[in-house]
Amino acid sequence: MTDKMSVSREMFNDVMVPNYNPAAMIPVKGEGSRLWDQEGREYIDFAGGIAVNCLGHCHPAMVKAIQEQSQKLWHLSNVFTNEPAIRLAKKLTDATFADRVYFANSGAEANEAALKLARRWALEEHGEHKKQIIAFSKGFHGRTFFTVTVGGQPAYSDGFGPKPGAVEHVPYNDLEALKSLISDNTCAVMMEPLQGEGGVITPDADFVKGVRELCDQHNALLIFDEVQTGFGRTGSLYAYQQLGVTPDILASAKSLGGGFPIGAMLTTDAIAQHLKPGTHGSTYGGNPLACAVAEAVFDVVNTDDVLAGVKHREALVKEHLQRINDKYHVFDEIRGKGMLIGAALNEKFEGRARDFLQAGNAEGVMVLVAGPNVVRFTPSLIIPETDIVEGMKRFEQAVAKVAG
Is 216 an active-site residue? Predict the structure, then answer.
């Protein structure tokens, strides 16, 4: 057995493409909502791998699932099907509006499949004129060229040459703007039922219902990107279930695998028929290892106890953030739903979200940003209350330092 190479943060700069600038420390171990770095320093994890680690780190159900499946089958390719994939698809369709599931490896891939399916449906059902895709400014749908074009953030999509065509954007929560753009040439409207990367923006209830009605009027598909909001993150299995609106296609990932890479696109029988054999595929999508882990995550998350617990934790986190703000006056608004919470900075601290993230790291608490003006919290759905209290104590120390 060869000795493991010793690794330092400096090595990252020598061997990695420089598109990331990670923290100075390297986490090496996690348990529940706590992490430890190479030096043995402990952190409370309010970041959750960017809304991925929905059961924290090394949850026993996930460890058991991966251990058992790793001794049976890892990969087959889609020349064959497998039991974990079929079981997971059955559980997902039983719990949602969907009849059919397509498995991928990430949120971007699930969204890519959703967009390709919408275009194929429109072409075959209506003709070449019906190709327009409408999405929302400050949206985020992944980093493939198609999904990053549909995402409404030019900073992510510019600089790579000609973009896929017939993609247009309107402001989120602006129904009149959508009404003026949508037509019978619109193939699909794609939206997050709560914008994540764009600043943790909650939609107005009338806006979501209005989007659905406009899609129905113009025979366009409604695609919900639930990569971040899905799988218990907002207190129901999927966010659409609390909005009184049902999409035609839904993309899921992040929490779906609890930390193991997997994505899924969910849709109805009628729409699914347009992805016939050969029209789309994925080498690793639906592999037995990923599906076995995701099934274990599903069995834990899709319970009344866990989903009700998310809403309880939301109230607790918001209460602590409000208390901190009453003392230091750094936030303009505490917003979001479930375990997807944003603390929007006021004018005095505008553009300084990353300062709070870095100060948090120094105090032993991990948080995220959602743009330059919002500190984002996406912890485990089952984070113990004692960890919320301790994490908020550390975050308050970070806020005190930034606030001076």
Answer: no
Instruction: Tell me what pLDDT residue 404 has.
Output: 86
What are the tens digits of pLDDT across the range 43-55? 999 999 999 999 9
Dist. CA 350–CA 124, nearest whole Å: 48
Residue type, 372: P
Q: Would the pTM count as exceeding 0.90? A: yes
Confirm whether residue 108 is marked as ligand binding. yes
Q: Is 283 among the annotated ligand-binding positions?
A: yes
Residue 254 annotated to the active site: yes
Q: Which of the following is catalytic: 37, 225, 248, 387? A: 225
CA angle 145/16/355 to nearest 5° reads 85
C-alpha to C-alpha distance for 315 and 326, rounded to whole angstroms: 16
CATH classification at residue 369? 3.90.1150.10
Domain membership of residue 317 as a residue range: 9-58+304-403
> Crossing angle, helix 353-363 and helix 385-403, to 10 degrees?
120
Contact status, residue 230 vs residue 255, Cβ threshold 8 Å: yes
Q: Is the pLDDT of residue 2 over 60?
A: no
Looking at the fold, whether 255 and 352 belong to one and the same domain comes out as: no
Domain match, 332 and 213 both: no
pLDDT digits (tens, 9 = 90+) for 202-224: 999 999 999 999 999 999 999 99
Q: Is 157 annotated for ligand binding?
A: no
140 is in an annotated binding site: yes
CATH code, domain with 110? 3.40.640.10
In-domain check, residue 249: yes
Q: What is the dihedral of CA 104, 106, 108, 112, to 10 degrees?
A: 0
Among 46, 103, 136, 140, the active-site one is 140
Average model confidence (pLDDT) across the chain = 97
pLDDT above 70: percentage of residues in the chain: 100
Choosing from 130, 138, 254, 337, the catalytic residue is 254
Does 213 belong to an annotated binding site?
no
- Measure the CA–CA gap between 312 and 331, rounded to whole angstroms: 22
